[in-house]
Amino acid sequence: MNYRKMGRTGLKLSELSLGSWVTFGGQVGEDVAKECMTAAYDAGINFFDGAEAYAHGEAEVVMGNVIKKQGWRREGLVLSTKIFWGGKGPNDVGLSHKRIIEGVNAALRRWQVDYLDLAFCHRPDPDTPIEETARAFDILVRQGKVFYWGTSEWSAHQIVEAHGLADQAGWAKPCMEQPQYNLLVRDRFELEYAQVWRLGYGSTIWSPLASGVLTGKYSGGKTPKDSRLAMEQNAWLKDMVATPDKLEAATRLEPLAKELGCSLAQLSIAWCLKKPNVSTVILGASKASQVKENLGAIDVAAKLDEQWVKRIEKAVDAKR
Questions:
Q1: Distance in angstroms between the alpha carbons of the first and the last residue of the chain
Q2: Residue of 41, 54, 193, 218 marked catalytic
Q3: Domain count of the chain?
Q4: Which of 10, 208, 265, 268 has the least C-beta neighbours within 10 A?
Q5: Which CATH number belongs to the domain containing residue 76 in this structure?
Q6: Does residue 41 carry a catalytic annotation?
């Protein structure tokens, strides 16, 4: 396992990490989560990503239980939460001072820890001034409950504004963004965020496999019964990601994976690892075998030179 600095900070993240969106606490229970997390931990993964919205908080409960039962050293881990969707009440959604403070405190209880290394604003909040959000996170940093704060799926303009307000006020500045980034979703990360990377931001990218489309498992219109897109509650996700054009792009990549002697998933993750400004690639898994297979992307990335990266991107962009 290789470790990368999170932007200009001194924090080092394993280049591959493990997330819990639509898996832990929902698609799979604690026993399977333990197998997945242990496979990741044994391979050197140190970053485990959560959010208050994942399985209504149950994902963080599951991961916290696993860490406690396994006796893993807290100092050796990087743990996160994301704040925005905390419940159904009028003050349980958004990024107000109240929501952020209460949300982080609730996450600490779910994780069963005294502090979280990373805390993200899960989405921008049009109802709350960015200054109020930044000040709340500064308070949490000063209290030692959060070490670094950042954003997820904010526009570049919003990120720059938050950074500037915090800098002017002498508050802890946001320093990382968690955006979707994969072979099928590239423009925001590569174009819009150019000014964000100049600020020294790190990135914890999610959905490197486009919710499974870049594994090839959905090729030909198939939907395996044990896949996340087969679950009734994820019908919205299937409609969004398993579109004909994306499935065709995944099919065009399969010969390249065969030539490299790897799986399509490994090729897709390896491509992410080769791209500038990627601090860590968050993996999702519902089986330990998936974690182990995806870890093979590190070896594949070592084979990808500039020409290989161009060939991969040309295959995806064939019909653009």
A1: 35
A2: 54
A3: 1
A4: 10
A5: 3.20.20.100
A6: no
